[in-house]
Amino acid sequence: MAVNHIDVDPRGEYVATCSDDGRVNITKLFNWKNNRSFISGKFIKAIALAPEDKSSKRSFVVGNDKLTLYEPSLLHRLRPRELCAVEGSVLSISWQGNFVAWASHLGVRVYDLREKCSLGLMKWEVPAQARQENFRCHLRWSNPTTLLIGWVDTISIREIRKRNAIEASSSNLPGYVVNTVSTFQTSFYICGLAPLAANQLVVLGYRKERSANYKALRPVLCVIEYKKNTYEEVCQDILPVRGFEEYTVNDYSLSSIIEENRYFIIAPKDIVVASLIETDDRVEWLIKHNKFEEAMEISTHGGSLPLLSVARLYINHLLTLKKYEDAAKLCLRVLGNNKALWQEEVFKFVKCQQLRCVSAYLPTSEDCKLDPQVYEMVLYEFLLLDVNGLLNLIKEWPPKLYNGLAVINAIEDKFREQNANELLEALALLYSYQGNYESAMLMYLKLQNKVVFELIRRFELYDVISQLIIPLIQIDREGAFKILLDKSKIKPDVVVHQLEQNQEYLYWYLDGLEKTESHGAFHEKLVGLYAKYDRSKLLPFLRHPLSNYTIQEALAICKSKGFHPEMVYLLGRMGNDVEALNIIIHSIKDIEMAIELCKERNDDDLWNKLIDESSNQGEMVTKVLDGIVDYVNPELVVSKIKLGQNIPNLQQSLTKMLWHYKLKKDFMDLAHEIQLTDYFDTHVVTLQKRGRNVSDDQVCASCSCTLIVSDSTPTNGLTIFNCGHIYHETCLTDSRCGVLGCYSRKLLDANL
Question: Domain Vps41 beta-propeller spans what residues (predicted)?
Answer without folding.
Answer: 2-274
